[in-house]
Specification:
Layout: H1 3-13, E1 16-17, H2 23-28, H3 40-43, H4 45-58, E2 62-64, H5 82-97, E3 101-106, H6 121-138, E4 142-148, H7 151-164, E5 169-173, H8 187-196, E6 201-205, H9 210-221, E7 228-231, E8 238-240, E9 243-245, H10 250-263, E10 267-268, H11 276-285, E11 301-303, E12 308-310, E13 316-322, H12 328-335, H13 340-351, E14 356-359, H14 368-380, E15 387-390, H15 394-403, E16 409-411, H16 417-430, E17 433-435, E18 445-447, E19 451-452
Parallel strand pairs: 1-10, 2-3, 3-4, 4-5, 5-6, 6-7, 7-10, 13-14, 14-15, 15-16, 16-17
Antiparallel strand pairs: 8-9, 11-12, 13-18, 17-19
Helix pairs in contact: 4-5, 4-11, 5-6, 6-7, 8-9, 9-10, 10-11, 14-15, 15-16
Amino acid sequence: MNGRGKLERLLCEQLLIFDGAMGTMLQGLGLKGGDLAEKYNLERPEVIAGIHRAYVEAGAQAVTTNTFSANRFKLAGSGLDLAAVIKAAVEIARKAAADRLVALDVGPLGQLMEPYGTLSFETAYEAFAEQIRAGAAAGADLVLVETMSDLYEAKAAVLAARENTDLPVFCTMTFQANGRTLTGADPMTVVNVLQSLGVDALGINCSLGPEEVAPLMEAMLRYAQVPIMVQPNAGLPQLLGNETVFPVMPAEFAAYGCGMAAKGARILGGCCGTTPAHIEALKHALAGTKSVSITVPRLQMASSGRTTVTFEDEATLLCGRIHPGTDQQLADALCRGDLDCLIQEALDQQDDGAAILDVNVAVPGIDEKAAVVDVVKAIQGIVKLPLMISSSNPEVIEKAARIYNGRLIINTAGRDAPFLTAIKPIVRKYGCLAAAPDLTAVVPRLTKADIIDV
């Protein structure tokens, strides 16, 4: 049975129990600060195998490969071969796991993405694709994208997994104490963006203990159409002398896990500070517990990387417009590559109360496909509003949907049936919303009735 078949059977029958921490377990076994845990896959495979076996014996139904940092950036200069590290990790996990699931662990790249850093979306995608192809070839059952603090980076990883394998894809984000990721996404936005990209499960891991994670999980459950996964730390780390300790003991951790399962979480495990004892306590506490079925209405929601707007029955949302084709000043700025003018216009419309920005960069003589990428990246780096893209060219729309950090709206106003047929694959692949074809060409406001499934 392949990974998807195993996963569907387990989720149909019961709650799914993942393993706990790898990094803090290795530190307890002698891994020095600053050393790469992944080198153990080649140099001390018996240590990694022992950790996997301990979690399996504790009751874990899925084990996570020791590949959290196995990417081209974090292995640079280490002398380690990426493909060899990943192949060894999957083989070690497979042997220890027997018939249990093996999840390829894909962590953040360790580089800040644009606009906060210099890492482009395309470069991030290629780095993740390289890692994921190696893991799939080695025999992983699913891809676990985890500990993501930037929703844009998570999108790059999810797309890399979906486009380079047919494996199930899980994605978990890490949150700060203020209830948002490092780059500002709240749980509602995380759910809307990730499930629109087609993940098989999503959720939370790391950064916080189970008490702090619980309300974030509940916020996700209000919107999630896919299973929610939760892997908290064993509490917030504390420094005792020269030693970092995690205060939540196995019994307390298991009690929190039972509470999360009762609320609707279907996949549970642990992150930093958790041990086989924590997983064993969780497994025993949940013995015989059936997963809770929750009916969640499918809401029409558009998102930027930080903000989500919902099209509810009575809501009317003001839609701003960035259309250089009808504004000579903006057109001249775009043609000479001056995006500051467009950004200022977007900021002005945000300040004037717009909830969504409709962007159309079709200007005579311009490369519209290149321009839409530049404009979307520039605006989303500064303006928090969700975007809507207007174009008569499906290739332009796909360029925008791919590079966009969020869940995009496609403006189909005035478009014919062949155009709608052409964009259907784009809508499905990127989970876009669409504004109705009979919408007026000037789009001052949007309501629920204006948003359609294409």
